[in-house]
Amino acid sequence: MSDVKRINPRRPYRMSPTGLRRIVLGEIASADPHIGVTAHETQQAKPLRTREPAKRWHMAVAHSERGRLDDHAREAIAAASILATPDTGVVAVILGELHENAGELGADKIVVVPDLDATRFQPQREEAVVQVLLDEFVPAHVFMPDNLRGDGDLGRRLIAKDNAFAATHVIELDARHVSVSWSGGAEIAKAPLPRFVLLAPGVVDAKLPFAGAGELLPAPKLPGVTEAYRDLGLEPTEAADIALEEADFIVSAGNGVENVETLGTLARTLGAAIGASRVAVDEGKFSRDKQIGASGKSVNATTYFAIGISGAVQHLQGIKGCRHVIAINRDGGAPIVKRADLTVIGDAEELMQALITRVSQARNQGEVPRSKDE
Amino acid sequence: MSNAFTVAALISAGRHPVSGAPRACRGDAVAMALGRRMAGDGLRVVHAGAAEEPSLQDYLALGAGTIEALPLDSSGDAVATLAAHLKNVDIILTGSNAESGAGSGLLPYALARALARPVAGNVLDARVQKTAGEGWDVEIRQFLPKGQRRRIGCALPLVIAVHPRAPVQLKYAYARRLSGRIERFPETPTDTCVAQPVWTVETASRRPIRLKARETKSGHARMQAAVVAEAKGGIVAFEGSTVDKAQVMLNYLREHRLVDF
């Protein structure tokens, strides 16, 4: 018998969505082609970060958006839990409604204040509520996302009130230090970790190998504060007028879209801005300022509809910041399928028409969507 | 134009991020232009720092007129100096971030705290109106991400931090640079003494390191994680009629709360 190690050519494998055979060592898997597609569902529950009772606290404060936390807010909670020692608890203070489990994000205790959502401007009440919680927990460090949605503003108000050393727009942190960019980015400045830390986006990896206890605490009573500001409300903005870089919902067309009018109708029905791939712009269907991709604009929309776009690397580069990508494409093997969170295979024109009908039906009838809490 | 309210714009020493050449900080120049629109010639332009600062010349060219330079004492506490100097000013305009130093954007908030008045950040436009009484009232247009804009009303006095995208036109004129004046003020001693930890500044030679949770995983688990990450992709809807597929998309939008119907 020779020394060459023998490998079973028919050992278990799984199929990836691209149709490649993947051999996962040590796993007893079936050749079921759908396993690779729903791989994230097979994940087990994460272990708890700590089981010790909390002696000290870290706090993360963030606004929610439509009942969910964006990546930036998740990073703030993740930073609080990564830097916490085993005897330190993590309190997450969520201003606005929350429909997801913040325990998975690393928080041990969660305070949700639904009346203080980001759509309304009430900084003095927010400040008062957070101050009550700061007095209750006396956290060693408070982490907040430094954004323009109200968290950066609230954080700076708290820092001004605290009148102590603090760091804003932090680009790097560890258990002892924070770094900020100095003189417009040419230099970097380091200081000991202060009490208030406002984080720049992307500084922390929000993926955690552990979970927090996720105990929901009752919201503190809203103190009777008379605001110095009168909130006159958000301006009604026409989605089509919003600059593409700022838009939250984009419907984008590629080579597979024949009828531009249908796309316009769909965009109006969904209240979305219109974008296009390079091919569609080159054909003259759209103006140059609509182009998304390496030679056009980079967009940060929450929802991005890619209709008839195959997903060239240059285009994917432009939609790097989009959270939910929904693709309509005739080709199930197009690169966009790998990027998209939902891909619908079929003819673009027919599907657009069907979606327009369905959405306007849902809008007109005022259907109550099924409540499906995750 | 005579006003019953007074407006001051704060300007800081700007530096080009790459060459380090002195220049007007864009955010502060925008705030100054907005102040000019609100108060006309009545605008006061204030700089906390040395009168010899070379970037002040750029502000003169952009229409500062007369710059009031307040030298800082040894503690270097700009907030206390400015608060003492601007006690009686109704509207104080600042940029969002300074270009030199940390550029933390904290000054308007600290100044508002010191003067015990409200502060509004990321302001695109501000209009002053007379109220029913004899008071004045400001209507502010605030920048929010995702193309949203908010309107806020507030009584005077007030501190306003202007967003750099405020719709104003900056016009550079060499003649104004020559005709402008810098007024030197005597140093005012401040009694505050806040011990601030000193930043250690070094050249940014490397990319910042991302904070990651430490993982203790077996080799097999790491391998699997790598394979699963590689096989990333979402749900693919192949089957069903177009109506079914449209329903799938609508369900997705609703499930993730991306639409409000």
UniProtKB/TrEMBL annotation, chain A:
Its cofactor is FAD. GO terms for molecular function: electron transfer activity; flavin adenine dinucleotide binding. Pfam families: ETF, ETF_alpha. One of its GO terms (biological process) is fatty acid beta-oxidation using acyl-CoA dehydrogenase. Binds 1 FAD per dimer. It comes from the Bacteria. Residues 61-208 form the Electron transfer flavoprotein alpha/beta-subunit N-terminal domain. Keywords: Electron transport, FAD, Flavoprotein, Transport. FAD binds at residues 277-278, 291-295, 308-315, 329. InterPro entries: DHS-like_NAD/FAD-binding_dom, ETF_a/b_N, ETF_a/FixB, ETF_asu_C, Rossmann-like_a/b/a_fold. Residues 244-320 form the Electron transfer flavoprotein alpha subunit C-terminal domain. Belongs to the ETF alpha-subunit/FixB family. This is Electron transfer flavoprotein alpha subunit apoprotein.
From TrEMBL, chain B:
The lineage of its organism: Bacteria, Pseudomonadati, Pseudomonadota, Alphaproteobacteria, Hyphomicrobiales. This is Electron transfer flavoprotein beta subunit. It comes from the Bacteria.
